[in-house]
Structures are given as structure tokens and as C-alpha cells.
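Dear colleague,

Thank you for sharing your sequence with our group. We've completed the structure prediction you requested, and as agreed, I am returning the results in plain text so they can be pasted directly into your records. Please verify that the sequence below matches your submission; if there's any discrepancy, let me know and we will rerun it promptly.
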Amino acid sequence: MTDLAQERRLVTPIPGPKSQELLARKTAAVPSGVGVTLPVFVTRAGGGVLEDVDGNSLIDFGSGIAVTSVGNSAEAVVRRASAQLADFTHTCFMVTPYEGYVEVAEALNELTPGDHEKRTALFNSGAEAVENAVKIARAYTKRQAVVVFDHGYHGRTNLTMALTAKNMPYKHSFGPFAPEVYRMPLAYPYRWLTGPENCAQEAAAQAIDMITKQVGAENVAAIVIEPIQGEGGFIEPAKGFLPKLAEFARENGIVFVADEIQTGFCRTGQWFACEDEGIVPDLITTAKGIAGGLPLAAVTGRAEIMDAAHSGGLGGTYGGNPVACAGALGAIETMKEQDLNARARRIGEIMLARLRGMQEKFEIIGEVRGRGAMIAIELVEAGSKTPNAAATAAVAKACHAEGLVVLTCGTYGNVLRFLPPLVIGEDLLNEGLDIIEGALARL
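Please find the predicted C-alpha cells below.
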């Protein structure tokens, strides 16, 4: 990465001719269900840029969906993973174990909220982590029901599709889904009918009443929630909502699961987003930012809950792969040494100030929200709160053409989300914001 110029550089239209050739090959070889946001084929990446096969250099406001928080080729990740690669690629931890897995588990037990005794199990993907958290909660409580929330996203496996709120593209035509999943209202301040000031109290009361009356608290194994929702639109629940749910769970013997797959590892300016309100979850699921781009996920939680599953009940062939574990130790080293929590907070200050300035100029920005380097704007029809998915798609397309990678999200498809690498330079950050402002101005 050291010789990768940290600059935006466009030498062809986006996508360029070589990317278009590769896209034709992709179309012929890969099923159409595997979509692509921006068909530029990357050859090198790092810092805050992606370089494609045509020699273009794009500013990255996506981080592979919050994965490459330490950059795409962080020195410590490359160094540690390369050394492990030379020693051995795999043995399967459940057959003949190795120290790297234990080291990652120890690091997560230390980093996650709470000073109680903890255990960590490693897996391959966020969905797999959530699925295992539910298994563990059911084994511990001897109950079956799982409570989730409007706008939530938890993965693409059968169980996690059931946990996910949004039909298209995640669930459509893929059923039937796993039973015993119950969806509750979320404290969504911008869209709460009686106003944001009433949101936390009313949403918590509604959710708790529905759980009590419709499911029975004594039947609930787990409450699973993202402290800031990801795919659902970067919705930050109204302050007070999460603590009320956590208290209800504690009083009723329900396992409280924080899904920190998109929010974890310095993304919001803290190691984990649930720390913002002092939430100490029983179980916490992590993935994405954990290993600098290598596939790894984890469930970390209270020792007595994690130990409830019988021997052999948890695992998987690749779970806690040694190369991915080495990458995770390198990512955590980078986060600590470069104080990426502080970097995330600085990114948030810059982005929120600039975007709020744009909100004053452009009526279509209904809300600017987020924490740290997990920021979004919700676009609406001017003068209303009607979701404006068309404008969102148009802005994203304009940004892509200018060499800025941005992502959309939200139940209504009307949210632009920004997830820059935490190591991005402030010059690139501001240049990216200039491109967004220009795209909004041209609508």
C-alpha cells in the first residue's frame, strides 16, 4: 500500500473498458443474483482509495461495507497474515487447535463491554455469528422465541433472513423461513409519529407490551438488536430505548444480544456502539471490521451463557481460520496503535458538519445522522418525509461517475450511507464530500 498514491484519479469513464470486459465475463460466469454496486474491478487498494484495472483511483466511502476500517492492506494485517500463511493455512481448530484462535478470543473477551468472565467462539461471517448467538441463547434459556426489530438486518442464511426485516432483496422468494421470530417496533426518531422527543419511551413501551402480550416474556430466548441499524438505514435508536430493552431482558431472564457486525471495532468512535449508552450485552456478535478484510466473525459473551452449548455443538470447518485470526490480531494492533476510535470521531465531526451544511441548502435531505465514521443522509421529497429512493439512486450514480464509492441502504431505499476507512486522509474525505454536494446540487 505504501506506494499507492492517496488521490482520486480518473483516466477513463467509470467503469472503464477493461472493467467492462471483466463485467461481461462476470455476467457469463457468476449468477445474476450476485449483484454489483459499482462494476469497477479493483487491482490494488489501501488508505482511502481503490485502484481499478483501467488505472482509475477512486475515493472509498464504503470500506467493503465497513470491513476495511484499518484500510485494505494495513501493514500489521499483511505482516501477521503473511507470516501465518507461510507456517500453515489450516488445521481446523476443532481437530488440532492453534494459539491464534485463543489469542483472538482473549482479545475479544477483553475489548467487549463488561468486566464479567467471558468466552468467545469464532466463525466465518456475520450471519453465522448471529445464528450461533441464537443457538447459544436457546441452549442457555431452554426457550425458543427470538425478538427482533423493524428495519433490522442480520444476514442471508435461513434463520437470519427470518430475523431480517426487509423483503427485497434479502428474503423475496427464498422462504419458508425459520419459525419463532417476532418483530417489534424500533425507536426511529425521524419517523416516529408523535415526534422524536417521545420516541424512546413510547417505542420501548410498545415493544415490551407486545413481547409480554403476544409472545410471553417467559418464552423469549433472545432479544437481538443492532445498536445502530446498518442495512435498515443507519438508524440510531432514540436515546433510552436500548437501556429499557436491556433492563427488560435482564428482569425476564432473556439473553440480550447486540449485533455489532457493522458497528463494531472503532466504527462509531468507540470499540463498540453499545458502549455509548453503557449497555453491557449478554452476547455480542462481531464480523466485518474484525480482521482487516479476512473472513472472520465471533460471538462473545457471558461465560455461563456461552458454556451452555454442549461439547461439539458449536464450530465449523473454517471457523477461526489461522490466517484470518492473524489478520484480526493485526487489525486490533492497528486500531490501538493508531487510535482509530479518535480517528472515527474526527471523521464524524468533519462529515456531520459538512452534511448539515448541505441539509440547510438542499430540502431533499430529511435527516443527517450517525456517529463516528458511520454516517448517513436520508433523502425525501422536498417539503415532506416521503422517501425519495429515485433521488438517492441518482446521487449515488453521480458520485460513482465522479470516482467516489458510496452505498445506499434503508427499508425505503432512500438513505446514502458513508463508511470511509478510518485511515482515510482528511483531504480525500473533504474531496468526497465536495462530490456529494455537487451531485445534490445537480439534482
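Summary note from our side: The chain has a mean pLDDT of 97.

Kind regards,
the structure core
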